[in-house]
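Dear colleague,

Thank you for sharing your sequence with our group. We've completed the structure prediction you requested, and as agreed, I am returning the results in plain text so they can be pasted directly into your records. Please verify that the sequence below matches your submission; if there's any discrepancy, let me know and we will rerun it promptly.
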Amino acid sequence: MKTGWYHLGALLIVLVWGTTFLSTKMLLLNGLSPENIFFCRFLIATVGIWFFGKSQWFANSVKDELLLVLLGVCGGSLYFVCENSALNITQTANVALIVCTAPLITAILSHLMLPSDKLNRFVVQGSLVSLLGVALVAFNGHLVLKINPLGDFLSLVAALTWAIYTIVLKQLSYRYSSLFITRKVFIYGLITILPSFFFHPVGVAAVLLRPVVWGNLLYLGIVASLLCYFLWNIIVKRIGVIRTTNYIYIVPLVALVAGVIALDEVITPVAIVGALLILSGVIWAGRKQTEKRSSKGIHPLV
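Please find the predicted structure tokens below.
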């Protein structure tokens, strides 16, 4: 029963994250750039997490501090710029479905980077099915929805960065508290996004006065970032990477429904088939997988 609460928490988190595609789309339609959305979102989260206390400022080693910078990039600036940019040029459903391959990419990277995590036949078979599903979603976009293929590529990059974030997070979670890690992710995410403003100045003051804008930003900053990141980091530590990331499979279903209801987006039969293949593939890939956990937090990656 104790782990049941963590599974329920993971489910609630992905339900929230499934609707963030819609919130981000609304902000893009109101004139905010992907960089502006991320900066405002993480700034709100950083201010909010400051009220939870500051037990530690820096990691115990330079190596761990650099890994925290990597978390800020892969789980923050680079991830959201890629995802938000993709939402600016493609449908919400397409982005959600392709980003959904993050658990599958996580399993593959674990096999390549960590000797203890070996791919089994379920992962190989699931990978092939999921890749076919991604191809169908992209094919549907080009011929039916006339979407720029750059959106599909950026979505895949976002999935890759989230996979890296998850793997590194697992290792650091054994040595630092979830509150400390979450705070550092927000801070380094903000710092690493700053260079982009040399090319895309902020200039969003007037837009922020619109209720739909600040309402969605508060939702993204407080609920989807501050609360969800903090809880997600705890859950990854408690029930493991693979069991936690499996819940990401639900994200595209939420995004599909939200996109149809709120944005009148069209979901064609080809997209539905692609969605089913992606979900079937990643679920099949997760069968009978186990991950070794070290009580001392020692791992070849870090």
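Summary note from our side: The CA atoms of residues 86 and 151 lie 4 Å apart.

Kind regards,
the structure core
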